[in-house]
Design a protein that fits this description.
Chains A, B: Residues 4-59 form the HTH lacI-type domain. Two copies of one chain form a homodimer. The first copy, chain A, is α/β, with parallel strands linked by helices. Helix content of chain A is 45%, strand content 16%. Strand 2 (94-99) of chain A pairs antiparallel with strand 2 of chain B, so a sheet runs across the interface. The structure holds a DNA duplex (16 and 16 nucleotides).
DNA sequence: CTGAAAGCGCTTACAG
DNA sequence: CTGAAAGCGCTTACAG
């Protein structure tokens, strides 16, 4: 099966390759209706599929973007990825998927790979401060936008969530319900979002004179981690009426442990998560959580990236989304 | 930031492009140690990243594969995708992600796109019989392998699960526990795997003279579908002691509805799912299910594909995995 | 309204 | 041990 090329079509149509190329690229103002139609007809008959690799080499554009994230298996990331792919596809772009498990070296490796493939831009959910990766991207002049995970750096484009405010909303909701002994489970220390979320809790609790370090626990954003930390909480905290997990996945683990120990939810203890991942509605009772507009965020990130790629003017560097409290069954 | 190319390096090293190229491709048996090292050193200093698009054009190989699946947001698919990406990456390949929502037209569109990008092969989780897509792939001679969703067609490579046997195991387990009124919830009708799973149930029930059409319900593999069908079951089936959902996600929806109606699980009703998606362990009680070796399947599929791409001999056309019953809390 | 030619950055026989 | 040259399939000024 010999591949059909632009030259084959040109020959059959009795025109030059340039003419054929122009027809396919809609730069055909200057081409007569007849030749255009002849070309299109032949292309159709031969089942012609253009070779976009050749095109990329000539134009220096690939119409592919990369998406670098920790783990597609984590529902938060798969939902973001879905949004990005939808938006990218609708704008004529392909998405190449890269899982890093938060490993800095894997990020760098992927970035080099993507650059070598002439990727037009990258959406990056960083596993840490990822300094070298950011440096690489800047050095090579590859447009990129961060999502979800904030990195301190000027000249950065990104779409983020107002983590601090989201947590404040949740804590105040619990406070209004008369809860006083609110345990907080932090996220991985190296992430900026973990710090922001914790600060939202700390400030609010302090404001009401309720803050105590004994109520704060270190988590890691995983299900297992959520289970383990909850065992610790049960063992070590004399009195608690709520647990605020700084992401949903840890909350799922925690709820299992609490139920096993005979706690009633929300009777004995109120639970709040963060993210509003789709499975929040899979469990019973359904999870009360601080919802990030995940799909919107992914979509905007992709949109922003493509505007950067197209060198549009006046693109906002950073977009903030306001999360909101969704009250369901656990609080 | 001018991009550095092989010519720049050649010039600086005082050799030809061919020599430089050979060094990078490890075809350098014939190149003196000194020149090799000189070239490598210069490349490093200039932070050279090869242009693999140019390479692809010259070699007709892209070291990218496509993965076409219904929805990355569905945990079953995200787990498969993860396995594929891991394996692909370890073998030097990139993965481009395509979500089809089971739409035949989107599948075709993506396939054309992927072909035009000179993708080396495709992993395809089809949304139906996808005749035209399969035809396209064959016509253009693109290696592809199917996973999970079987399609009747000779000349097809794929990795599948022994759906029939898995269901038989589950039904017999329930039977052994003394259950007799086992409701079965089918998957989407157009899928071959739905038929296989249903047949496993039907044959086993008939063998023991327990089959009745009143116990069979139509589902759609979604959470909402699982909820809806379960409402129906509660309304219409006088007596049932178990429900066998033909995938986990529907089981999650069903369990919520049953709990809300006051049923005890597994006290009043036993539940079995199919897949053993990671979230099976997120809920309480944990889901008893027929486990597919999802990660293994994805990995093998990718491996098989790459062997096809490399035109290896004696590759097995079809791999079957045996699912197995995992007994947890719901049955 | 259309064509000839150069170029994108590589690889690959071939020659010496 | 290394180089010159053609070619992969497109696009893009430029010329007419």
């Amino acid at each position: 099966m010999k591949k059909v090329t632009i030259s084959d079509i040109a020959k059959l149509a009795g025109v030059s390759k340039a003419t054929v190329s122009m027809v396919f690229n809609n730069k055909d103002e200057n081409i007569s209706k007849e030749t255009r139609e002849r070309i299109l007809k032949i292309a159709k008959e031969l089942n012609y599929i253009p070779n976009s690799v050749a095109r990329s080499l000539a134009t220096n554009r690939s119409f592919s973007i990369g998406i670098i994230l920790p783990d597609i298996t984590n529902p938060f990331f798969s939902e973001i990825a879905r949004a990005i792919e939808d938006e990218a596809n609708s704008l004529g772009y392909n998405v190449v998927l890269c899982n890093t498990d938060n490993k800095i070296e894997k990020e760098e490796e992927y970035i080099k790979l993507l650059i070598s493939k002439l990727i037009d831009g990258i959406i990056f959910i960083a596993g840490g401060d990822s300094k070298k990766s950011i440096f690489l991207l800047k050095e090579k002049g590859i447009p990129f936008v961060l999502v979800d995970r904030y990195i301190e750096d000027k000249d950065i484009f990104g779409v983020f969530c107002k983590n601090y405010e989201g947590i404040v909303d949740g804590v105040e909701y619990l406070l209004n319900k008369g809860k006083r002994n609110i345990v907080f489970v932090k996220g991985p220390q190296k992430l900026e979002i973990s710090k922001q979320r914790f600060l939202g809790y700390k400030d609010t609790m302090q404001k009401y004179g309720l803050y105590s370090e004994e109520l704060v626990f270190q988590g890691d954003f995983t299900l297992e981690g959520g289970k383990k930390v909850t065992e610790d909480i049960i063992k070590n905290v004399k009195k608690f009426d709520s647990i605020f997990y700084s992401n949903d996945v840890m909350a799922f683990g925690g709820i299992k442990v609490l139920l096993k120990h005979g706690y009633k939810i929300p009777g004995d203890v109120n639970i709040i998560g963060f993210d509003d991942v789709q499975i929040s509605k899979f469990i019973e009772p359904e999870l009360t959580t601080i919802a990030q507009p995940i799909y919107e965020m992914g979509k905007s990130a992709c949109n922003l990236l493509i505007r950067l790629i197209n060198k549009e003017e006046n693109v906002e560097k950073i977009l903030y989304f306001r999360p909101k409290l969704i009250i369901r069954g656990t609080a």
